[in-house]
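Cast an eye over my tokenised protein here and flag anything odd:

===
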Amino acid sequence: MQFKIDGKSFHKTRACTIKTAHSTIQTPVFMPVGTQATVKALDANDMLSLGAKIILGNTYHLYLRPGSEIIKKFGGLHGFSKFPNSFLTDSGGFQAFSLGDNSKPDENGIMFKSHHDGSKHYFTPESVLDTQYELGSDIMMILDDLVALPNTKERIKKSIERTTDWAEKAITYHKSQQEKGIGINQNIFAIIQGGTDKEFRKLSATQLCALTDFDGFAIGGLSVGEPNAAMYETVEWTTDFMPEDKPRYLMGVGTPEDLIENIERGVDMFDCVMPTRNARNGSLFTTYGKIAIKNAKFKEDAEPIDKACECYTCKNFTKAYLNHLFRAGEITYYRLATLHNIHYYLTLMREAREAILADNWVEFKKEFYKKRGIEI
């Protein structure tokens, strides 16, 4: 991986370039979520037409179905999905966490029951990398011990200890595999934990960032129940302990407002199911805020979803048509709505980058909120 900072503006905002074996990624970047090796309702050509340089795949789900060994036979995620640009794959830690009573971490890994058939599986720092080697992703996330918030100090402390221990095992294993010719073009990111406790975040970040062989660092364990203000404060604090010369990734976040606020706090990379899931549920993002397309007021609305949007959907179809498709349960709705929401997110990131490079961040942010009827 090659990484360079192209420019900075107000506070911690920065525009960077990340080069992997498959694409050049300009940050700030939003990574659409392709859980099953596809962004729901879209295919590789759609993602290319949207200008996506990187999407996220889910190690847990792909491990269970169809199996990483099958994906490897088809040339990894790139050959299997035909998306030629970069993939980031998470480690499965979040999915194990979200299984609740069906998963149980211990000192060496996480035991969980498949949500498909109840079969038992055990993830270790090494095994999740083996899965990701077969998936062939450009950026691999390590196994981490994620906990819900709020939680006890004892449990958060245990999470940090496990995550650091697993990170050490993961980077040692990764280096040994690369010496064997495995994962040569794959990069590895560690995940900082610690809840919203500043000292715990400092401890986790300091321990992990001391492991200099990692290619980048993520902030995990947020957007899991804490107030937005607590999330922003935690990111503001944590990025101070992350290296300047490597990518910073905030996992599972979030709304357009969350992206803007956390770019200002020094984050480069984001992912979230929000634009795709909201699209399917009838919630569409616009320059002026969200709209619920199922509302009766759109039944005869001849305007596009967003007059300022240049996506395929907005250039060709009306709110009335989208309202009709949604109410009729037509599959076409899911594609058109998802195209719009992903386009909105990717455009917002491109405009944020342009504002940073022009050293115009403060004005850009004010205008972003003003269009939503919010004065800052």
Observations:
- The first strand starts at residue 2 and ends at 8.
- Residues 35 and 58 are 5 Å apart (CA to CA).
- The radius of gyration is 20 Å.
